[in-house]
Amino acid sequence: MANTTSSFPAAPVSRRQSGSLALSSVMSKIGWIIAQVFLWIFFASVAFPIIWTIMTSFKTSRELFTNPWALPAVPQITNYIKAWNEMKVGTYFFNSVFVSFTSLAITMLLGSMAAYVIARVNIKINRGLYFFFLAGWLIPYFLTFIPAWFLHRQLGTISKDGGHLALIIQYSAGSLPFTIFFLYAFFKTLPRELEESAVIDGANPYQVFFQVMLPLAKSGILTVGIFNFIGIWNEYPWALVTISRDELKTLPLGLANLLQRSQYQTDWGAMFAGFVLTLVPTFVVYAIYQSRLTEGITVGALKG
Fold first, then answer.
1. Residue 164 and residue 95 in contact, taking contact as beta carbons nearer than 8 Å
2. Is the pLDDT of residue 299 over 60?
3. Which CATH superfamily, name and number, covers 78-303?
4. What distance in Å separates the CA atoms of residue 117 and residue 120, rounded to the nearest whole number?
5. Shortest CA distance to 92 belongs to which of 302, 263, 243, 269?
6. What is the Cα–Cα distance from 215 to 219, expressed in whole angstroms?
7. How sure is the predictor about 263, in pLDDT bands with cuts at 50, 70 and 90?
C-alpha cells in the first residue's frame, strides 16, 4: 500500500532570520543581566541597614562612634537585657502584641464576613457596599486623626491617661477596606456547588461560612493578615495622638520617646537592641509564612 502522507523538507532558515534570532538571544541575556544587577542593588540597599543595625546592637556606644563599620570587639549581650528591662522595651513589646493581635482578630473576623456577604449573597446593595468600603481606602490616613480623636473622646475610648481601646478600634476600622478588597476576589470565585451541598446536608449559614467557605480562602486570609499585622505593628502617629501613659505605649512609640528623651546620653547599643526587637516579630512571621504569602498574592491576582 502506497504511503499517502507526504513529508516536506523544513524550510531553510535565511541568514537574516538566523541573525535576528541570535540578536534576540543576546538582547534577552543582556536584559536578564541588567535585571539581576538591579535586583542585587535593591537587595543590598535593604539588607545592609538591617545587618548594620543588628551588628550595632552588640556594640558599646564608644565603639559605635569610634568605628561604626567594624564588627563589635566583644559582643554585648547585655544590651538586649538592658533594653528589655531598664528601657522598658519588654513592656512596650507586650503592649504591641496585645494591640496588634486583638486588632488583627477583629479585622479578619469582620472583614472576611463582610467580603463573603458582598461576594456571595445576591442582594441589590452589595455593589454599593463594596464601593462604600473601598471609598474608606481613598481617604488619607492623617486626615482622619482630628475627627477620629473627637469621636473617640465622645465615646469615652480615650481617657485622660490614654488607653488601648482607641488604638484597637481605629486599627480594626482602618484595616477593613483593604481586607474586604483583598478577600472579595477569593470568595467571588469559589464554586457555589459547595455551598449548595452544605445547605442540602443541613448546614446553616454560619456553618457554611466557617466550616466550608472560610477554609477554602485560607491562603488569602493568611496573606492579608500578614500585611495587616505589619501595618498595625509598626503604626506610630495614631498611637502618638492617643497614648500618654508610659506603661501603655506600644513599641514604636516607646522607642521613639526614649530616643527623644535621652538625647546625647543614650546607651546606643541598648537602643539599637530595642530596634532589633521591634523587627523580630515581622521577620519571624514572614519567614514562617513566606511560601503561603507568595501563593496568596498570586492566587488573589489571578482571581481578581
1. yes
2. no
3. MetI-like (1.10.3720.10)
4. 5
5. 243
6. 9
7. low
